[in-house]
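Archive transcription. Copying these from loose printouts into the bound notebook so they stop getting lost. Printout 1 of 2:
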Amino acid sequence: MASVTKRGDKWQYRVSYIDKDGKRKYVNKSGFRTKRLAENAGREVEIKYAHGAELDKTNITLMNYWDKWISLYKAGKHTEITERRYKTIRGQLQSYFGIMRELNSISKSDWQEFINYFCAGKDREPVKPRSKDTVSKLNGYVRSMVNNAIDDQIVYSNFTNNVYIPEDEEADKIKYLELDDFKNLIQHTTEFADYSEHFPYYLIATGALTGARYSEILGLTWSDIDFDNKQININKTWDYRFRTGFAKTKNKASVRTIDLSDNLLLLLRRLKKQQAEAYVYQGYRDTKKLVFRNIRHELISNGSINSSLRILEKELDIKQPITFHGLRHTHVSFLIYKGVNINYISRRLGHSNVTITQTVYSHLFKTLEKEQAKATTDALSSL
């Protein structure tokens, strides 16, 4: 039976137990407003002990359990980018909850308050709201951790379940080029791409006409391009952030074949010819046979390609500029408006399933749905 005593104007419980080594130990917790709250909390500890919980672990802090969970289940099993994400999330949790906050003390309301704070970007300077996707990913990682804590009998329920993630229209808005701007971009890059003068145009056109991720494009070797069958084989990426060389694709579904348009095929043939001529002149041999190694034998960074894209958008008088990743969104929006099958689009993007595609581009489908609804009613009215 837990003993309950009063300290000042607060109540505390104390539970004695025998640990796995046969030694008597105690679990104490204070700060309860009423005697009943302390009794109930002490009773919960006794129930956990009766069900086999190791009580010396029940008061583990959020940060200590996060570190333990990462060490056991995550560390060394993913890309360096993902490993960095774990550290970022850890910093965000510690900044809000502190280093001593016990995991079992976090309620659903506590977590919702954190999500509201994190989503609003109040930890940023200046304050800038985060996208729903970013918040959902953090919540998903913590949910997995808490599920393990439930199995370890440290907590009884998962406080991250059914959390409400506020939406910010601007933060969640997917940015893509309007049709006329998209056409101008494709026409300009395919016409003026040149290995020595306008090399970034090759990358920009490839991103726009395939919808591939930047790391996937940089990871292409000439053997990945099937000119006869008009296809590109995505089977690896290039780690442009940490410069470790070739890396795995984002997931299994990202290993895929992308059908190529005629204008992109012509562009890639031109690049191959110009690159080969430059290498002969320079006496250079690329053992990796990378498609997008420039005349200085470099693979340009994500920051550099975005800088080149911004300059080009200014030249073309594009009022709502996008990043290189926005070319992927533009590619998808164009295919959706052209009525291309969603299952094909999903496979082309390398999404794990079509639901991801539908979720990410839901606003585009809603717009298209209105057009389809009118076409449907017009057709029925003509009967």
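Printout 2 of 2:
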Amino acid sequence: MTDLTVTVDGHELAASWTDENPETRDAIADALPVEGDAARWGDELYFSIPVDVPPENAQEEVPVGAVAYWPQGDALCLFWGPTPASQGEEPRAAGPVSVVARLDDVTPLADLDGGATVRVDPA
């Protein structure tokens, strides 16, 4: 079941909420829709959102397709491959993040040249 539509420079991506960080997920769900000009850091995009919640089950290594909240920067992050902090091919955040959703398909993100405009809407 698709819970979210994540639009990255005109590409619509489906995403589903995950259950491991319910307080963070609910805070983000209450703030939707969110949109911003995202910066790129390796194979990660991140942008500020109007949410301020403490870390919840935070981790640095995340799965491909993770949509995560970075409490240190009040930012939403999309991961699809290695970042400058990675020790191999795994996506790794600059600091602990709370995973709240998973993108169904990250293939369109591989074509990005730099930053992008990102919008997250409820499906």
